[in-house]
Structures are given as C-alpha cells and as structure tokens.
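Researcher: Final request for today, and then I'll write up notes for the group meeting. The sequence and the SMILES for pyridoxal-5'-phosphate follow.
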Amino acid sequence: MLPFIRSDLAQFTAYKPHPSSDTADAVTTQFDRLDTNESPYDLPPELKEKLAWTYQQVIETNRYPDGGHETLKEVIAEYVNESAALSSSSVTAANISVGNGSDELIRSLLIATCLGGEGSILVANPTFSMYGILAKTLGIPVVEVGRSEINFEIDLPAAQSAIAQTQNPPIRVVFVVHPNSPTANCLTASELDWLRSLSAEILVVIDEAYFEFSQTTLVEELLQRPNWIILRTFSKAFRLAALRVGYCVAHPEAIAILEKVRLPYNLPSFSIAAALVALQNRQLLLASISQTLTEREKLIQALSQYPALQVTASAANFIYLRVAPNSSIPQNTALQNLHQKLRQSGTLVRLLPQGLRITIGTHEENARTLNRLQAAVTNLPF
Ligand SMILES: Cc1ncc(COP(=O)(O)O)c(C=O)c1O
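Model: Predicted protein-pyridoxal-5'-phosphate complex:
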C-alpha cells in the first residue's frame, strides 16, 4: 500500500465496470450483454446524423462547454412535467441539476450531506451498489438493512431502528430506488409512508433511473417535500449510456447546493447536445419501451415454467431470477453455476449474492438467452 493513501481505501472494492470479466480467459464469443440494464437499441441513424452535424457545425472543441446547462435544464423540466402530467410551470430549471451520469449526482449529494463526519447513509440490500461504493470512497459510513424475501419490501422496523440507533455520525441520507435494482419492484405503500414519516433532517433520495419503464414517479409529491430528491438518467430508456448524462429534481435550495459542489464543466458539449437531441425526439426513442415490456412479459412467462427457478414481477427493463431452494446444492453455488453457464454460452448477466439480474434485450438476444438458460437448467444439478 502506498504510504500516502488513506488506510480505509486498502480494503475497498471498486465497482466492476462492463464488460465484466471474472477470469483471465480470453473473450471468445460475441456476448449478448444483458448485465448492465442499458437499452439494447442504439440511437437511430437519423439522430446520429443530427448529432454528427452538430459536432461538425456547432461545437467548438477548443472552447469549454456550457457550464450552466440552462437550456438543457429547461428542456428537462418540460419533460419532467410532461412525464408526471403536471402543468408546465410546476417543475422549472431551478428544480434541476445535471450530472455526468446520475453517478456524479450521487457523489455530489454525498459530499453535500455527509462528508467530514457529518452523516452516514442508509441502504436496503440488495440495491444499486454505487450508493455504498461512492460513500466508502468518501469515508462515509454505510448502514445496511435487508428486504423481505417475498416482495422485496425494505425491512422497515430494521431501517427505523437503524435511524434511531446510529450516532456519530447520524443517518443523513436514505437511498431508495423506484423501481429497485436488482429486484425490479416499485416502492410499496408502507415504504412510502415510512419515507414520509422521516425527519426533515434526513434527505430521501428516490432514484427513478427506470422511470420510463415503470411509468411511476414521485415528482408531484416531491414538490411538497424539500427533503426529497429524485434522480433520473439518460443511460437507460433514452439510449445514451455512452454519453453520461443524469439529472435530479429537487427543491431549488437543494439544487443551489448541488450546483456549488459540482465541477464547473462536468458535462462535455457533445453530451449536452446528445441529451437535447434525445429529449427533442423523445417520442421516437421512447416508442421502443412497449417492445421491451412485451419481451419482458414473454421472458417471465417462459421462465416461470421451470420449477427450479423463481422469477418475480418486474416494473423495469430487467428481471430478477432466483433459484428455488434445493437440498442437493446450496443456492449461491447454483446461481454461480447458472451465471457461468450463461457466460460460457454467450450471455452476460449480473450475478448477485441471491439472484441473477437479467436485462431485457432485443427479441433475438432474449430468445438466445432463454435457450441458454433452458440448457443450463436442464444440465445443472438442482
Ligand atoms: C438505480 C440506478 N441508478 C443510477 C444508475 C447510474 O446511472 P448513470 O449511467 O446515469 O450514472 C444506475 C445504472 O445502472 C442504476 O441502476
């Protein structure tokens, strides 16, 4: 360990970026990449041409990008209102901050709330791993509670007692995902009531990365709640994962703080242009969602035929697959085998301690993956 590096970083495990590789084996197959919840559809060629034109004719690469994001924020505010069926003056540019992916906004939120020993965060596992990972890089303590194994609801008594008992530093931020990754369920009525009951000294971050698939949002309620923040991203339904654009919706005072914390030129000019083009063409881009939802239901239907597998309902563009308890082989071994067999036969999926998360791909990718899963289930000892 280098002597000048913080000692807590020695034990730290970084996020494993895509494409995942567990072994030193050469990648011999063209994988179906169903492990990172991206859209399987690239931008349509006409939009790429538009962007190429903007790059050639408008963007001056020798100049810094627009550091204020005013136009982008206005167009995002318009989309947010539309997406929640609100009047055009409900959410304005003053309610929006834009990040280099929502990952950047998560880090800014942590800096603004918990850094310097001021707070801990609460997460309910399994959930999106970056909240905990980013907190640890900043030396922020992470308090973890579990979820119901049946409907994946947060263990609310455990969460409540964690808040009551955690001191030095107290819990300042609760992160929830709506719908959750990897379990694909939306917040339940009890979870929502619990979030509403939290003290105004606790920031509630509601991550709606998969909103376009769930069509369920808390934007309207957020307008009445200054301690709530909603995160969204262009990396999923808007097909811009490569260009790293995320945004958040919050009370103007919270936005002003986030704007203080962010780097002045956090978004490249090309990414700003791409997000604008995506929003201007949202009808075209979001039209593919119905296909994804149809494919998702077909996959769930097909997988529920296998007694060895447990598949649950999904409100997102991925499904969560577990293996049924079985006396001959431990569940995590069965999952690792399944993950490995899928990988060897050409599909990458996300392996989690208690399940597999499988992104809904194109019709062809899903059909191939289903065949591979069928072969794996038939050949594995369950
Ligand atoms: C719940 C959730 N939030 C945020 C992100 C990150 O999004 P971005 O690409 O905007 O950083 C992801 C990506 O998988 C996610 O699943």
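Model: The chain has two domains: 18-41+288-379, 45-284. The chain is about 40% helix and 15% strand.
Researcher: Thanks, that's everything.
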